[in-house]
Design goal:
Layout lengths: L1 E4 L5 H12 L3 E6 L6 E2 L5 H10 L7 E4 L17 H27 L5 E5 L14 H21 L5 E6 L16 H14 L8 E3 L8
Parallel strand pairs: 1-2, 1-4, 2-3, 4-5, 5-6, 6-7
Length: 214
């Protein structure tokens, strides 16, 4: 199985890349910096075109849209949430996911059982809205909506789409006080990806398989 993982240079993305490779999958990981990974700034349409071309006709069986940013952590309502942070966050967390899917549609359609996994967050939920982190929450809610609609439009093409909360994970983004470690999150997400099919397309699930409130 050929797996493409965006934002595979650290945290959950790096953990997923390692786990997929360990079980024998062919893994193409990306990062903005490139280096040992394929270079892909998900906000840049030209880089998407170059990345898709570099696949050289290979099928993509699983696309994991993991790349994202959290720029407004700790901001205050009275003085934070700069307009530039809104634009940068949505460019990476929402538009970046759409551009990735759009660029890799031909590669996904070459697979016999193509899947797209979108990493959202519990912070996308409108049911549980404790306030704060307005930019990040709004971007994750938007990408949840994007995933739900992609599931509808890609159903006739046989491409399953799942949207996932990876848990509050002890990573650079999640912080040291988070509730689970990277391995638990990765193991759970891998099981969810394996279960994803046309019968579950469009679902919003926790890393451990429990349905998440919208």
């Amino acid at each position: 199985m050929h797996v493409v993982i965006t934002g595979a240079n650290r945290g959950i993305g790096a953990g997923l890349a390692t786990a997929c490779a360990a079980r024998g999958d062919e893994v193409t990981g990306t990062s903005r910096q490139g280096g040992d990974l394929a270079r892909l700034d998900v906000t840049d349409p030209a880089q998407h075109a170059a990345f898709a071309a570099a696949l050289n006709g290979r099928a993509v069986d699983l696309l994991v849209c993991n790349a994202g940013v959290y720029l407004d952590k700790g901001h205050t309502l009275d003085s934070g949430y700069d307009a530039a942070f809104w634009a940068e966050t949505f460019a990476a967390n929402v538009t970046g996911v759409f551009l990735t899917v759009q660029a890799l549609l031909p590669a996904l359609e070459r697979s016999t059982q193509p899947k797209i996994a979108i990493i959202s967050s519990k912070m996308a939920s409108q049911t549980h809205a404790p306030g704060g982190s307005y930019i990040y929450r709004a971007s994750k809610a938007a990408v949840l909506n994007l995933g739900r609609n992609l599931a509808v439009d890609l159903r006739p093409r046989g491409i399953a789409v799942g949207i996932y909360h990876p848990g509050w994970v002890r990573t650079d983004m999640g912080g040291s006080k988070a509730s689970i470690n990277t391995k638990d999150s990765v193991d759970g997400l891998m099981a969810r990806f394996d279960d994803l099919d046309m019968g579950t397309t469009g679902a919003f699930l926790n890393w451990d398989g429990r349905p998440h409130d919208f």
